[in-house]
Design a protein that fits this description.
The protein is of the alpha/beta class. The chain has 9 helices and 7 strands. Strands 3-2-1-4-5-6-7 form a 7-stranded parallel beta sheet, sandwiched between helices. Helix 1 (about 20-30) crosses helix 9 (about 220-230), helix 3 packs parallel to helix 4 (about 105-135) and helix 4 runs parallel beside helix 6 (about 155-175). The longest helix is centred in the middle third of the chain and has 29 residues, at about 105-135. Bound molecules: NADP nicotinamide-adenine-dinucleotide phosphate (NAP). NADP nicotinamide-adenine-dinucleotide phosphate binds near residues 66, 67, 92, 142 and 144.
């Protein structure tokens, strides 16, 4: 937020569409400048930057495949040169390659691990040094309820989303004393391209499991991320917040 230290810079991976787009907009509304990373969605990332500028935020769109370490190094270099040091990192980029375990191909496993989990390692490693130096930083990883309770057909995806939780908790312990928090948002069933492919019978079965009686919106997730990114969240680290309409409460 812009309250204590002027405008801060947030990077949202996979920010061009879906949940990442809503997060970028929410952070822009809250007074952050925003670096929007995209891989394929160039046009919508550029359009988002215009919307962010209209909110008074500095914004830039940066192409990188965050599943590749070399791309991530180049991404941070070009953000540093054009916008400054990343103070808030949102590890949002993610893919699904669903299949039953006994049919899952090696590639379906490794592509999901690379896009969802390796990306968070590469980006957080790049970002953390600057955060520690500034004695202020926020990392938010977008996991999933699939990482908490599993999901048939998503052994690869669930493994990455559970992996993000262990990763975030370990990083939270390493950097808590340096003013850097690392937290996790675990969305439930959210209305985006990722879920638009689901068949009607799957959707209605999912809906029956949600006490709130509706799918979540990308904005529901963005509000939780904005809290973790704020000064108000300074004493909250290593936490997992499910944004799921009560789906996984125990
Ligand atoms: P989406 O609509 O399919 O969008 C996926 C985003 O990830 C896109 O912006 C895409 O960028 C980006 N991305 C994927 N691979 C990338 C890569 N290698 N490098 C850079 N960007 C990459 O999905 P979504 O629903 O918004 O999901 C966003 C996050 O929330 C994901 O981590 C997902 O697992 C998680 N999540 C979603 C739900 C849900 O119900 N929708 C539930 C729980 C968790 P390009 O378009 O530019 O390629």
């Amino acid at each position: 937020m812009a309250d204590k230290a002027g405008r801060r810079l947030a990077l949202v991976t996979g920010g061009g569409r879906g949940i990442g787009r809503a997060i970028a907009l929410k952070l822009g509304e809250k007074g952050f400048d925003v670096a929007v990373n995209y891989n394929n969605s160039a046009a919508s990332a550029e359009e988002l930057c215009e919307e962010l500028s209209a909110l008074g935020a500095s914004a830039g769109a940066f192409k990188a495949d965050v599943s590749k370490a070399g791309d991530v190094a180049a991404l941070f270099k070009s953000i540093e040169e054009s916008m400054g040091t990343v103070q808030v990192l949102v590890n949002n980029a993610g893919i699904t390659r669903d299949n039953l375990l006994m049919r899952m191909k090696e590639e379906e496993w490794s592509d999901v691990i690379a896009a969802n989990l390796n990306s968070a390692f590469y980006c957080t490693k790049e970002a953390i040094r600057g955060m520690v130096k500034a004695r202020w930083g926020r990392v938010v990883c977008i996991s999933s309820v699939a990482g908490l309770v599993g999901n048939a057909g998503q052994a690869n995806y669930s493994a990455t989303k559970a992996g993000l939780i262990g990763f975030a908790k370990s990083a939270a312990r390493e950097y808590a004393a340096k003013g850097v928090t690392v937290n996790v948002v675990a969305p439930g069933f959210i209305e985006t391209d990722m879920t638009s492919v689901l068949k009607e019978n799957v959707r209605s079965a999912m809906l029956r499991q949600i006490p709130s009686g509706r799918m979540g919106s990308p904005e529901d997730v963005a509000k939780a991320v904005a809290f973790f990114a704020s000064d108000e969240g300074e004493y909250v680290t290593g936490q997992v917040l499910a944004v799921d309409g009560g789906m996984t409460m125990c």
